[in-house]
Amino acid sequence: MNENMRPDDEDALRGELRALRSSTPFPVLFGGSVADGRMLLSGFAGTRSRVLRGLAIDARCGLGGRAIAEQRPEVAPDYFASSHITHDYDVQVAGEGIESLLAVPVVVRGVTRAAIYGGLRARRPIGDVMAGTVLRSATRLAREIEIRDEVDRRVQLIERADAEPVARSTSESERITESYLLLRELAAQVADASVAERLRAVERTLRSLAAVEDVDPSITLSPREFDVLSHVALGCRNAEIAERLSLSVETVKTYMRNLMAKLEVSSRQQAVFEARRRGLLP
């Protein structure tokens, strides 16, 4: 995929750390992305020195390495006395004055992609309430990375598309339709405005790939009618369409009645067939 399409995931991590600074009792927060079993610390909030910056954490080494490898939060209320972790990074932890530490992995589809730490400059227990905010932050970050991964995967349809128009089978058209509808849903969910705009740009490109040249000009579907009919073409029921488009089931039914009247048909299947015949659907 074009590397310019995907924003730097480190920015999303740093954004979460900034948000945590005002919503968690941890005075020290840091984290990094994981690649090839190693995490490089790249995001920091509340640190007093540069001792942690650029530190590479190997899987199973230290508290964070254990969290990465086992894909679960790890806690050391008395870090230097802990017997269940290695102490490869004691010098750096001590240099920042941390005595109690929490490490939470960011797991996406079964793969650890990052980790977030919360540190205290005193030996004290780290309970569920204190850890909860960091856990929720890790969950948000995992969702953000998952959405970005989905953009990468879906945009492959564009990169593989030939420059010359080609005849597509119904199944290929349905996959493209499913892709741009999903991208619209993801754009509505993602918090990062730049990512949302890129999602919408990819959606528009996919729509142009699916566009049909010979469109009947006598019938015009509203954007919502088009969305509803596109989902019907994918086999979605009214309840599923309503959930995907954040509409009520009755509103979906109203859109269906309106577009069926425009197409002069009496069933959902006929509506899809007629819309495709008139070039309104790919």
TrEMBL record:
**Lineage: superkingdom:** Bacteria
Q: Does the keyword Acyltransferase apply?
A: no
Question: Which keywords appear in this protein's UniProt record, sorted alphabetically?
Answer: DNA-binding, Transcription, Transcription regulation
The molecular function GO annotations come to: DNA binding
Provide an example Pfam family for this protein. Answer: GerE
Which InterPro entries did the record assign?
GAF-like_dom_sf (IPR029016), Sig_transdc_resp-reg_C-effctor (IPR016032), Tscrpt_reg_LuxR_C (IPR000792), WH-like_DNA-bd_sf (IPR036388)
Mind listing the GO biological process terms from this record?
regulation of DNA-templated transcription
* Residue ranges occupied by any HTH luxR-type domain in the UniProt entry: 214-279
Q: What is this protein called?
A: Response regulator transcription factor
Q: Which organism is it from?
A: Rhodococcus spelaei
UniProt lineage:
Bacteria, Bacillati, Actinomycetota, Actinomycetes, Mycobacteriales
